[in-house]
Amino acid sequence: MRFTFKKLLNIDANPKTVKGQAHGYLTAVLYFAPWMASGVNVCPMAEQAGCHKACLNTAGHGGISKGGKLMRTPAGMLPANQIQRARIARTRLFNQDRPEFFRRLYQEIRAFMRKAERMGLTPVIRLNGTSDILWEKIPMPVSDNKRGIHGYFDNVMAVFPELQFYDYTKIWKRFERTQPSNYHLTLSYSLASRKYAQACTRAHEQFGASLVVVTRNAEVRDFHIELGGIDGDAHDLRFLDPPGSMIYLKAKGAARTDQTGFVIN
Question: SS3 of 98, please?
Fold first, then answer.
């Protein structure tokens, strides 16, 4: 089955990221098919953290299909809609034709920056909307005759040093390494595995990693916010949080019924 897509980047079509405009930011997000949905695992800690069953991939329009139709993927059944097909197609392009993927990504980021400038907003980018790829480790080829740029850069952040990139991650070891100065990471907490929970706590205490916790409902989230936590549902601009913050989110989509420990009671 051949899947197609129009764009790599989703620009503020997300009800949470669009809240950033009130703070002066325009957000672009790259959505892949999470975990094993494309046949290649792009979320290496998904099973240990328990989020493979509670992924936001099926929240909102991504979870709706005409007549409730489903399609089979290596990660199980998913709604048979264009959103899921496009996410699988993007992931396949990334894994099967990296030069073409980066060519398109470069062009779309440049267009996104121009759009933000026209709107009088600051552009920010989140590349792991529904994936957990170590972008800091992936070299990016660039060929731009107009700007006189040719060759390989250490990563996409090095190509656009003027841009703020940010992501959520469950790969706690990333906090043991120095990240690009324009790449902010927030660690996603889970009690699905005792080993994983302890690793998150160590990263928080030793490296100042901010932790995001998904709570069962708004009441639990609000309780922790009253104790000094940050409301993660107010906006998605995690790079604005002080280092070592505790951020609380309300469960959405399939996460509402999660019993793995990823969602905290």
Answer: helix
Query: How far, in Å, CA of 83 to CA of 60, rounded?
Result: 10
- Which DSSP helix (H) or strand (E) runs through 13? none
Separation between Cα atoms, residue 11 and residue 108, nearest integer Å:
10
Which of 236, 172, 239 lies closest to 204 in space, CA to CA? 172
pLDDT digits (tens, 9 = 90+) for 114-172: 999 999 999 999 999 999 999 999 999 999 999 999 999 999 999 999 999 999 999 99
The pLDDT value given to residue 4: 74
Q: Mention every residue, 6+ apart, whose C-beta is less than 8 A from residue 219.
A: none
- Most distant pair of Cα atoms in the chain: their distance: 54
pLDDT score for 56: 64
Distance CA 193, CA 211 (A): 16
140: which 2 tokens? 């990016």
Q: Is 80 left (phi over 0), alpha (psi -120 to 50) or beta?
A: beta
Strand partners, 258: none
Six-digit token pair at 17? Answer: 């990221």
pTM of the model: 0.90
Distance, CA of 176 to CA of 201 (rounded, Å): 13
φ, ψ of residue 261 to 5 degrees: the values are: 110, -10
Q: What does the alpha-carbon distance between residue 224 and residue 230 come to, in Å, rounded to a whole number?
A: 8
Q: How far is CA 221 from the centre of its chain?
A: 21
Residue with structure tokens 């205490």?
A: 205
Q: Are 229 and 248 in contact (CB under 8 A)?
A: yes
Strand 211-215 and strand 122-126: pairing? unpaired
